[in-house]
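Lab notebook, page 48
Experiment: co-folding of the full assembly
Goal: obtain a model of how the components sit together before planning crosslinking
Operator: M.T.
Materials (sequences as entered):
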Amino acid sequence: MDFDLTVEQKLLQESARDFLARECPRERVREFEETGEAYPPELWRKMAGLGWMGLIIPEEYGGSGGSFLDLTVLFEVMGFNICPGPLFSTVVLGALPVLAAGSEAQKKAILPAIARGERLMTMALAEPDSDGDASSIMAGATPAGDGFRLNGIKLFVPYGEHADSILWVGRTGHGENAGDGITVFVVKNGVPGIEKTGLKTLVRDRQCELLFKDVRVPKDSVLGKSDLGWPVVENTLEKASVVLCAEMIGGAQAVLEMSLRYARERVQFNHPIGSFQAIQHYLADMWMDIHGSRYLLYKAAWKISEGMEAGMEAAMAKARIGEAFRRVTLQGHQIFGGIGFTKEHDMHLYHKRSMTGDLQLGHGDVHRERVAVRLGL
Amino acid sequence: MRFDFTDEEKAFREEVEDFARTELPPDWDEKALYWPAGYGTFPGIEASFKDMYDELLRKLGRKGWLSLGWPKECGGMNSMTRHVILDDVMSYHRAPGGDVSTAIAAPTLALIASDEMKKEWLPRIAAGELRFWLGYSEPNAGSDLASIKTRADDDGDAFVLNGQKIWSSGAHIADYGWVLAKTDMNAPRYRGETLMLVDNRTPGITIRPIINICGIHSFNEVFFDDVRVPKKNVVGQINQGFYCVMLALQYERLFVGMGAFRRVLEELVRYVKETKRQGMTLGKDPLIRNKLAAMAIEIETLYGFYWRTAWMMDRGQAPEPEASALKLFGTELSRRLAGTAMEILGPCGQLERGSKWAPLRGLINLGYMDSISGAIGAGTSEVQRGIIATRGLGMPRK
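Observation: model returned without errors.
Model output:
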């Protein structure tokens, strides 16, 4: 057993913390939420300069060849600072599946550009009747000439308005299993037939609706093999839920640290409220919830990093951490009292993300069912 | 990071598994009543199967497995990780992997006792020959341990003990008490107590059973009436006993019966797959699936605290607040698991051991009662939360 990060990972963690504390303070996060700008471009350029987009991309494609565990460490810091931007959609929903299933030509065309910070990516999966399971994917692709014609509505596509390419998941056929006949297409955003509508979400994180009407794509836009795209999607979702967990643990840690500071400073009945048992016990529970959950997160991340099967660990982490973040935030609110319920205070930034984080990529019940299957039930 | 064991550690786990399979009686599963992180049954079971327990501990001792976590110079392997691997396997079988003497007292002695004392006690403890009971709580000193009244008066080469201890698990089947007593009645709090080993055979000791909520005799009241304790039995320094106890408590917090958690989960999974209600297999019911998955996740979370605490100890770090979180999370999970298990059993959960229709040999029914104890003994949940908040998170004391 080794619960420690490597020296390099600690360095990455520290430098990311310093950088984001300087370049992405919470005022910046608020500004971004309120202005409606696509993403903070100068921050994005600086992050590219630090090599964050290329962290997990192999050196031969212009990245630094880091591990999934490295990426997890980085995203925990991102979550601590609730740093906005398309890093998640570009790297996790874009680079990882291309890396896993792309042809050599696709990798060469896409990955170095991502690593340089010059290409934004996303994945279009969910639909009005589905939050991302294979059986309910209705958007369809039909052969047309030398390629395909894509039709259908996709929802909750992160940065769907701004991404340069979209990994579009559609049905090309049917088979014995729900996942049979699913194909992933690399679609250049901006080709004719794509209608984009931004969704007004709780944290203004630039999710959107994409309506495809007879969008024509060439044959070589298929990622991996036609009809056999579902394992690519599943694999991406598993990794994405672990990265999302890292962000949520980072966010929960930030709430704990804010609450600890406030409990020391706030005086009532002539004593700092942190000296009261009721408050101390909340804080102890928050710490325990985060600390216990972090083990599930890093065990899943480590297994993925080692190329081991991690379905059980990823499901356990996502089921627990979404709910833990919500619990921690609510306890934090109880410590902050009235001021935490205001727009001027930072708590709402975290409180909202605790809920949306739980809802995205399957909430607790969804992942507990996955655990149940793996228990042999 | 690495969340896996070394090849040697894995081989060791196999060896312990083999040991448990060959050394435990074939019908042990029928007899064993232990509920994870419960404190109310094991001394009672031990009393019922005393010969088997004595023999088993001596066999563990011969293999050097009662001293795995002790320092090398004290005859140990200096590996708390191996200690918890053994404990995980043995508790899975609801069998003892050690005792108060081997896992709480001995590692404390190794750190603070004189060389003479170590020589006198550690080899016998390592051999599985001695059983201890913990003499901390008193009728008016529970969470506030510093307010104990039992006094040890200086009388030449001995202390003379007068007073009373309570909740003393297994005192009726043990050899020595690990007793905290006041040696300086005028000292400030925490500075006037001394820890000492008290021979159960000394004249003036009266042990009276307390039958617990499970109907089992595990706890005792112990009365001291002019009991002479030789000064060579003092553990650590005179008047430093409170700090010795704090150290011992860190080891005690590893006693969560980790393996028994996963054992109960396995049994419940099997039960719901084999049981039909209203024409449907229970295991197909989404509510049941969700409940069991939730338990599996919490048990895995507890494993995190468990392995981490041992890992920190192996690196010479004091696992504070980690050990408190392990104890707190484990004992509260013990209650949740019992409650969930009872809900799954439904009306049959009411049936006690020995009833014809009692599922899982009535274990859950008993466990539901026993699970009350964990979150109270060895520092209540509230005490643990206080430790985490003040010592771990730096919250001010009033």
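Interpretation: Chain B touches chain A through 50 residues (CB under 8 Å).
Next step: discuss with group before ordering constructs.
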